[in-house]
Design brief:
Elements lengths: L1 H5 L3 E9 L2 E8 L5 E9 L6 H4 L3 H16 L8 E9 L2 E9 L9
Parallel strand pairs: 3-4
Antiparallel strand pairs: 1-2, 2-3, 4-5
Length: 108
């Protein structure tokens, strides 16, 4: 989270859970856009590593939790994006806009 705050993102929520989904972090851009962040770590890079572990089914769960989170907001819907923070081989990898809700093909 500290890394994201250094990138000018503001903390909103952590561990947002709903039936069928979870979001690790919800952050906010200076312009008010919400950033839903999945944090992944893998000790080994087998099977594609940490970033690759956020596959279609995991994306569905994240989007479902984001929809639940947004349903609690009154008024206009803010712009949103889905980022992934992956720790691979001792390095932090920030994948901005890693996937989109419409990538779930309506199943979310």
């Amino acid at each position: 989270m500290t890394f994201l705050q250094r990138q000018r993102l503001r903390f909103v929520a952590r561990n947002v859970v709903c039936r069928g989904g979870e979001i690790d972090l919800v952050m906010s851009e200076p312009d008010g856009a919400l950033v839903f962040v999945e944090v992944r770590a893998r000790a080994q890079s087998r099977y594609g590593g940490a970033a690759a572990s956020v596959a279609w089914r995991k994306q569905q769960r994240i989007v479902r939790a984001a929809q639940h989170f947004l349903s609690a907001h009154d008024g206009a819907m803010p712009a949103c994006r889905f980022d992934v923070i992956a720790f691979e081989r001792g390095r932090l990898l920030w994948l901005r806009d890693a996937f989109r809700a419409d990538d779930c093909a309506g199943d979310c």
